[in-house]
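Re: the multi-chain job from yesterday

Posting the exact lines I submitted so nobody has to dig through the queue logs.
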Amino acid sequence: EAQVTQNPRYLITVTGKKLTVTCSQNMNHEYMSWYRQDPGLGLRQIYYSMNVEVTDKGDVPEGYKVSRKEKRNFPLILESPSPNQTSLYFCASSPWGGGAVVTEAFFGQGTRLTVV
Amino acid sequence: AQSVAQPEDQVNVAEGNPLTVKCTYSVSGNPYLFWYVQYPNRGLQFLLKYITGDNLVKGSYGFEAEFNKSQTSFHLKKPSALVSDSALYFCAVRAGNNRKLIWGLGTSLAVNP
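And the result, structure tokens for all chains:
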């Protein structure tokens, strides 16, 4: 089954304690991205990756890091989380090659992060 | 600047009645339009998309959407709403060769029994 898998689904942590949210897809997609969803602000892109070892900032990258060492995995790293990073996070993947603009993105189930 | 607007934060309809969730867009180049649904505690699920051709596109769960180029709109519709349709709906657009999705802020649909 084609899917994007995020872990963990729920996470409560304390300010300053480094954490990683994992994301893995089994569709051989080149393009992967991270979003955060906040009430009244919709979905905002944090980082994206066009392929292995190719990443770039989205609209709200401050306080986050990513890596893309393998095509299937795209972890989101919060090196020093703060309460304003409390949010619902989604990983998504889609093709990047020809015709990609007309292809829908596939989303993970989300990670609800609370930073206290 | 490219943008998507969903002018209604919330839409309330009675079960069995038709529903419409509105979306307008502003882009340069040909628009490629998408609707996604988010059920409580779930990720976003793709509903339907407009790429080219027939302005009325049909998607999952009985939903359809009408592309109107002159009004730059892509409203989501369903002839008879179900309580289980209650969810958060997002409209998104890509334009030209730009692979980035531009998102609306979402519309919360409540279908009342």
